[in-house]
Write a structure and sequence with these properties.
580 residues, mainly beta, Bacterial Ig-like domain-containing protein, Immunoglobulin-like, 6 domains, five-stranded antiparallel sheet, six-stranded antiparallel sheet
Length: 580
């Protein structure tokens, strides 16, 4: 078709002839397969046109033009057009006498000998089928002086209403079913009466319902009885504003069972993890039926809210139906997956690798975080503890090496297996003391008070703490950062011994010290009697000099005698006074 769809053609031309002869009782058919616009859709139909002769009121010889449309899938007439006065035509080829059909007979092998023949209905198919060349209608027009009245409504006389497209929207028992017929009229429709037999064998007429225009529907909805197998009959009679009446054929259909459509929903979903609550619900069960929810073949409550163990479960919502409803089953699988097992392994209360020295004891611990049942604790593949969580083991690592500490969980029907591993790195024991040395002050005498202590410290493993003492260990002061020099000290006068200490992470200790002397106070010295007075003139060849000096650490008194040009004499003494 023009819309790209395919039309079903089940009625072949020989069948079409029989249908047309039965309904139109006419001759000289022309049949054409054509596409029309029908109910807002494209549709393929057989368009039939025929001429029918007879005598109007038994006097005038007349020709009637008939037209019809036949559904090529069902063979039903969906429309018939003929003059309203057709019933007044009787005689030769009328509705009141036996009908004959005009054919153009073409002898086999001799088309030039074609001639027109008139045969009865039973012979039509034989002629068309046997020769394949015979065609409907005369070979060369009509015969005699027939009078052809105006076609259609050109006579000015109104036709009866015409009907087509009769249909129903269901055949289900006990339901509301719509009965549809389209009516047309060349002038104006008036109304219709719907007649209905609800399986009782008797038609019951509804009240008259008005229609309008030249095209309208007579759509009537009826609740049919609930007995499956009942035969329902219906028909419609319509008239137009001129009083012309037409009836549909008696239409029939058989009541069928209602189709059951059960729903089955599982929430949150059909694939969940152990520990998740699920709800399975069956619905859409007609009130006249008994519907049952099954889990693995065993009836359960509806809805079924449960916490199931891991596995696959079949849920089925079922009804066996009854006289009026079909059976139905809706089935869905629910999968409960195992929860993931989780274990933790601790080395000295920490979930991390650990390095320790030989002969160190630490705790090895295990816990089951997610799961149920027992766990096992291994040291380098050797089982050292097992049972319910938590597990603990105090282990002394006496040999150096790398140790694999693992917790395992075998899992069960609801939890997956699990493990966690950390490593203990055991190194040789550290017996080497840290290195430390005082850099400043040094072991000398200072003439200034010392305020800074500088040192160096190191260790093969790692430094821990540094501290110092300014009184040979009587008082110790911790250095904030090991290896950092100390400032803002006060050595005071005299001898001092400063000492700095250090230890490593395993407790090995060492120290370094320095002793130094500080004397920052200058000695006092003065001339005393009988020292000559400055500026005196003497009549001898010597002078008198007497000097006194004081100091805590007095060492040497030196007197130097100069003349006007050079050093004349030097006197030294470690004792005060010095007299020369």
């Amino acid at each position: 078709m023009s819309n790209g769809k395919r039309a079903k053609i089940k009625i072949m031309p020989d069948q079409l002839v029989e249908i047309a002869l039965e309904r139109l009782k006419a001759q000289n058919f022309t049949m054409e397969l054509k596409e029309i616009r029908y109910k807002n859709e494209q549709k393929v139909i057989y368009n039939i046109e025929a001429n029918k002769t007879g005598r109007f009121l038994g006097i005038f010889k007349m020709k009637l033009k008939l037209e019809g449309q036949i559904d090529p899938e069902t063979g039903e007439f969906i429309r018939i057009n003929k003059p309203w006065w057709a019933f007044l035509v009787a005689g030769e080829n009328s509705d009141q006498v036996g009908e004959k059909t005009t054919l153009c007979h073409i002898p086999p092998g001799d088309p030039s000998a074609a001639h027109t023949i008139s045969v009865g209905a039973p012979a039509v198919n034989a002629h068309l089928g046997r020769h394949g060349g015979d065609t409907l209608g005369a070979c060369s027009g009509g015969e005699g002086n027939e009078t052809s009245p105006p076609e259609g409504n050109e006579t000015g006389v109104d036709e009866s209403p015409q009907w087509f497209d009769n249909s129903t929207n269901s055949t289900v028992n006990g339901t509301l079913i719509e009965h549809r017929v389209m009516w047309t009229d060349d002038n104006a429709l008036s109304g219709y009466i719907f007649s209905f037999d609800n399986g009782t064998g008797t038609f019951v007429n509804d009240s008259f319902v008005a229609m309008s225009g030249t095209e309208d529907w007579s759509n009537v909805s009826k609740v049919v009885n609930s007995t499956v197998g009942s035969t329902i009959r219906w028909r419609v009679s319509a008239n137009d504003t001129s009083g012309n009446t037409n009836n549909t054929e008696n239409r029939t259909y058989t009541i069928n069972q209602a189709t059951t459509s059960l729903n089955l929903v599982i929430t949150p979903s059909t694939s969940e993890t152990y520990g998740t609550e699920t709800t399975s619900t069956g619905s859409n069960c007609p009130s006249q039926l008994t519907c049952t929810l099954y889990r693995d073949g065993v009836a359960v409550s509806n809805p079924d809210t449960v916490n199931l163990t891991a596995g696959t479960y079949n849920y089925t919502y079922n009804t066996t139906g009854n006289t009026n409803y079909t059976t139905d089953t809706n089935t869905t699988n629910l999968i409960i997956n195992k929860e993931t097992g989780v274990v933790f392994t601790y080395l000295d209360n920490s979930r991390a690798n650990k390095t320790i020295e030989q002969f160190t004891e630490i705790y090895l611990n295990s816990t089951l975080e997610t799961g149920s049942g027992t766990i096992k604790l291994y040291n380098n593949g050797t089982l050292i503890n097992q049972g319910t969580s938590p597990l603990s083991n105090l282990t002394n690592f006496t040999a150096t090496g790398l140790y694999n500490i693992t917790t395992t969980y075998d899992g069960n029907e609801n939890y997956t297996s699990a493990f966690e591993t950390w490593y203990v790195n055991v190194t040789e024991a550290d017996v080497t003391s840290p290195q430390i040395s005082v850099v400043y002050p040094t072991n000398i005498n200072y003439t200034a008070i010392q305020t800074q202590l500088n040192y160096t410290a190191s260790d093969n493993i790692g430094l821990d703490t540094c501290w110092y003492s300014l009184d040979s260990g009587a008082t110790n002061i911790t250095i904030e950062t090991c290896g950092q020099n100390v400032t803002n000290l006060d050595s005071g006068q005299g001898s001092s011994t400063w000492k700095v200490y250090v230890n490593d992470t395993v407790g090995n200790e060492n120290s370094s010290s320095v002793t130094f002397f500080v004397d920052s106070i200058k000695p006092t010295i003065q001339f005393v009697s009988p020292t000559e007075t400055s500026g005196d003139s003497l009549g001898r060849n010597y002078i008198l000099v007497n000097v006194t000096a004081t100091d805590t650490n007095l060492d040497t008194i030196t007197i130097r005698l100069y003349n006007s040009t050079s050093l004349v004499q030097t006197n030294l003494s470690s004792i005060s006074q010095l007299f020369v």
